[in-house]
Amino acid sequence: MDPAEVEFLAEKEMVKIIPNFSLDKIYLIGGDLGPFNPGLPVEVPVWLALNLKQRQKCRIVPPEWMDTDKLEEIREQERKLDTFTPIPSLYYMELTKLLLNHSADNIPKADEIRTLVKDIWDTRVAKLRLSADSFISQQEAHAQLDNLTLMEINTTRSFLLDSLNYMYKLRSNLQPGRSQDY
Amino acid sequence: MPCERKPMRYGHSEGHTDVCFDDEGKCIVTCGSDGDVRIWESLDDDDPKSINVGEKVYSVALKNGKLVTAVSNNTVQIHTFPEGDPDGILTRFTTNANHVTFNSSGSRVAAGSSDFIVKIVEVVDSSQQKTLRGHDAPILSVALDPSDEFLASSSCDGSVTVWSIESQTQVAQWKIIQKSSDVSNAKSLCRLAWQPHSGKLLAVPVDLTVQLYDKNTWTHVSTLSDDLITQVVNVVVWSPCGKFLAAGTVGGNLLIWDVEAKLCIERQKHEKGFTVCGMAWHPSGVRIAYTDTEGCLGLLEGVSSSSPSSSSTVQSTKATAAKEKNDYDDLFDEDDDRMLDEGMSDSRSPVKKPVMEEDDDDDLMPATGRPRNRGSFLDDDDNSQDAGSVKLDGVPEEDGSSAILPAVGPAVSRPVYEGPMPTQPQRAFQPGSTPVHLMHRFMVWNSVGIVRGYNDDQDNAIDVEFHDTAVHHAMHLTNTLGHTMADLSQEAVLLACEGTDELASKIQCLHFSCWDTHKDWIVDLPKGEDVRALCLGQGWAAVATSALMVRLFSIGGVQKEIFSLPGAAVCMAGHGEQLLIVYHRGTGFDGDQALGVQLLQLGSKRRQVIHGEPLPLSRKSYLAWLGFTAEGTPCCIDSEGVVRMLNRTLGNTWTPVCNTRDSCKSRSDHYWVVGVHENPQQLRCIPCKGSRFPPTLPRPAVAVLPFNLPYCQTTTEKGQMEEQYWRSMLFHNHFGFLSSSGYEIDSEGQSQAEKEQQELLMKMFALSCKLEREFRCVELAEMMTHSVVTLAIRYASRSRRMALAQRLSELALEKANQFQEEELEEEEPTYQRGSRQMSSRQAQVENGCEEEEEDYPQEEQMDAEESTETRKPSLNPIKKGGKSPERPSPKPMSREGRVNPFKVSGAGKSSSSPAGQPRTTNVLDSMTVSSRKPTPLGGTSKQGKAPVLKPLAPKPKSKTQATLLQMSASKGSSKKLENSQTEAEKVKPAPAATPPASVENVENRKPKTGFQLWLEENRKSILADNPDFEEMDVIKEGMGRFRTLSAEERLNWTEKAKGDSDPKKRKREDEGQVNEQMESDEGSAKKKKPLDTSAKLSAFAFNKE
């Protein structure tokens, strides 16, 4: 899976915008959106929010968790614990990137948020690599990791699966008689 | 002793706080764990001055314009007061100081730190320090005695020590407090306090008591305690006179003792029971400020009525009359200045101001009484003046003054007014603006856009921004004239400034929708006349001035009518052609405002709708917002957060529709309203944490609150439905108003609303039926439209309430009569109305009013209009056919009779095609059909039936009724058609089971079908197989099983059912279908009816979904 695809999936997340135009309800396959009243917050998918923002038709209200205090708390939590902490949004990385790239002017302390989210991401991915490492080194048959997001799984999936495959092949070649257990 | 506990307000973020007064007692100074020191002019100061002094502030002390704080960076800093500029670092510790305090003269500061050290520093020369070492744990508190001889300190090591400052040695030590490892673990803050002036006693909070130690002997002399104290005493403070001692406890108790008498004279409880961690006594002794560990600030008012500060003043007045006079003049002067200051800063809360000033000042007169009495006082005897003013203060004169009073003649002759005090009239304001004194403020925020004013060092500018950028692009103007008022509409921005000595008050209008090149105009008001309030309507502007006048202008700048107001304007609002003015009707008393309201209709039909009637407000509140809903109904909001809306159908009364404070989380939170919408029902407002209005940055987000009428018992179903019903009624009043004032209305929305209301009525009816409240049922039915009454009759008769059904049918008849009369009268005007609407629509389009948007509803309206007209002739013959309303009217019935029963279920769906359908077969159909007309028409077509209906009154099986209700409750069935058939089928046996009254009815009985007979036989077995089946399921299952029977068997059942019938029917039966067609085949109009009703009922059940 491509990161772009994950990002595409993230674009269906809802976000609040404050439109500066007036439009009745619009009926889309994914559901009804609107009505849009100028000045009144309304929930729309990220893809629409970004589109409107690019056309300067709205201001984006950052999601509640996109706040330095909350993110700092999460970061501390993430650093403290060995397991993955629950993240306020399954698409935190994608949303941060999308929203900060396109509407940084509507988000207070955009730079700090970017750093914080990157920190959280790094911590989590490091944990993920660590657990993958111990998974392989201890030759476990299965493992459970909670609270992972799609993007995080995506970063490690192809590499992990391929390497497991190779290891399996190598092992079965080494011990042709006992190819069943690895 | 009268002592009033003022409500707490948010001061700092959670954590340790401290509080003190400035030397004059004008300001309260607080510090908190957020690192800020705030200077409050009063408890109601919405905009306290904040000084950031560090990351956390542990303690604050203030004297002689020096603000000393113990900060988390281990320093004790000085700031100037009230400017708040840093003035250097007084001393440093290796860890943070826990308590700082001044000596009585303000020359020295003592600080106790967590590094076990106490330091005494000269304020002017911080190099002169004395260090006291000897404690074995962090210092909790320090106190310098008034003679500057000793210092007392308490520490976590469990000791309270008295030091000689000069020799830096311990003089006395008592191990009386609990030991702890750190300040954060200490049970009590153990704030020590020396008695002021003499310094004879040292108060030490010990556990649940306060112990007093004598300075001369260093012995324990007495203990103050009270039963109320259940938790450790945290803080003690002496009154400035030294007679009283106040204490605050961990459990939130506040107590005051008379020390000599050892009497607890005041017991108060913190409103939430939080720990009191800071206390300060006002220099005048009349009040105590306290703070808690949640960061809130509170006040105890009128604490020491018998405090020597007032009595000593009395004595001094007696002694030196000449000096007295001067003093008083000083006081007055000072007061006058302060009045202005406060007026500027606190103009939005005039109600509380008098109270504040009264206690703020050392003078003995209430602010409100001052201007009136001053002259006479000064040439009067001083004593009487004093005595009188003591009384005016609401302070019972106990000591000095009571003794003086009898001796003075004039005092007795002058009756002292003790009645209700007049309220300071609230200042004029612009709805949706934030206070004028702010540097960055909203000049107006309404449904069109936002006007912001900036008035700081670099810039004096106005930003205009539109919610809908289609109206106009954002504007940035330099505010050279110093405008303070603004209003914004779709057409223009109106700005105004008050006049100065040289310049007249000006009105500036930026008419951006103007099509020529001159987009703005400026008008000067006559000299001495100032703009107080202004508003914009559609094509006009209005300005209320200090000369009690309202001036109307056209939007292009033509001066139009002027008229006088009965009182000073408070604010104005405009919408379309309506102008709403609120002014002072008179003087309010005891915190209430006396406001009057005028509503004028400008434009073509000029008239006054509300003639200066009093505007209802909550007790002790003032007007906070005034305006119109987007639909044009006047609305007002008071400072208590109650939103009131004009109810035009009840003689222009005001109905409370929402209390924004109900949605607030904390007491000091408010909602700042920016708009009210009736359709959809939305109250748009900005949540403000800890204030009444939002800051301009960060840009506040709008939230939407629902409306909630304060009806009784809204926890019950009945109460809820009543509230919903009346809310719906109220919020759809605007349809009536708009159509009567010639606007085109959204007929779809209106019929939707009507349908909603009727459904609510029907639900309430069903509920009362269930509760066997038949009288109530009739009352409800009286509110229903005719067509729904017939439905109610059916419901009543099906739930076997014959008496009720009887009464209802009488009612229905009455309604029908009434309606027909109206109908005849209305015949002519209808066409006129149509044409007028057409013309007004054009006007509408030009004006671009908000209510009617988009093209397609208009077209729909047109359709509806046309269909009304085409329908009319088709119906008229019927009407003429039967002149009397009671005619049995066979014609319409037979007409209905010919309707294909299968169409019935289709009719339920056909709400999407409102036009056509001259004969509305479905009751609710007539409600879904758009426009006002069809509903009555539907009623007319049926009215003839009412009398016939009466004797019918079929008794259903109770099961049928139950299913009916279930059906109506159930959601979205996909098999609509099938269900409706089965439903109809179920209903069908009902009439058969009821043999009351007329012969005609006996004929009406329907023979049972074979399937029904079979089902009756087999019901039990089905139920036995599937015990949890609902009635519907049983029938479905039954149908399935019936189909599996062999053809012969089925035939047998059918034969059984009807004995002799023609083979045609049998065929249909064989199909397993519900045989409704059979009825119509038989072709009797009379027979048709019961079927028809059942079909309607079933259709209703679906429509309700």
Supply the key terms.
heterodimer; A: 182 residues; mainly alpha; two-stranded antiparallel sheet; elongated; B: 1105 residues; alpha+beta; five-stranded antiparallel beta sheet; 33% helix; globular; disordered C terminus; WD repeat and HMG-box DNA-binding protein 1 (chain B); nucleus (chain B); WD repeat (chain B); DNA-binding (chain B)
What's a quick, concise take on this entry?
Chain A is mostly helical. Chain A has helices at 3-10, 46-54, 68-80, 92-103, 110-137, 150-174; strands at 14-19, 26-28, 31-33, 42-45, 58-61. Chain A: It is found in: Nucleus.
Shape call of chain B? globular
**Overall residue-averaged pLDDT value of chain A:** 89
Gyration radius of chain A, in Å = 21 Å
Helix/sheet category of chain B? alpha+beta
How helix-rich are the residues of chain A, as a percent range? 40-55%
- Sheet with most strands of chain A: 3 strands, antiparallel
- Low-confidence parts of chain B: 306-412, 829-899, 903-1005, 1060-1105
**What is the radius of gyration of chain B computed over CA atoms, rounded to a whole number of angstroms?**
40 Å
The end-to-end span of chain B amounts to 64 Å
Helix segment tally of chain B: 29
Number of strands of chain B: 52
Approximate shape of chain A: elongated
Helical content of chain B (DSSP H or I, runs of 4+): 25-40%
Q: How would you state the average pLDDT of chain B, rounded?
A: 73
- Quickly give the structural class of chain A: mainly alpha
> With helices defined by DSSP (H or I, 4 residues minimum), what is the helix count of chain A?
6
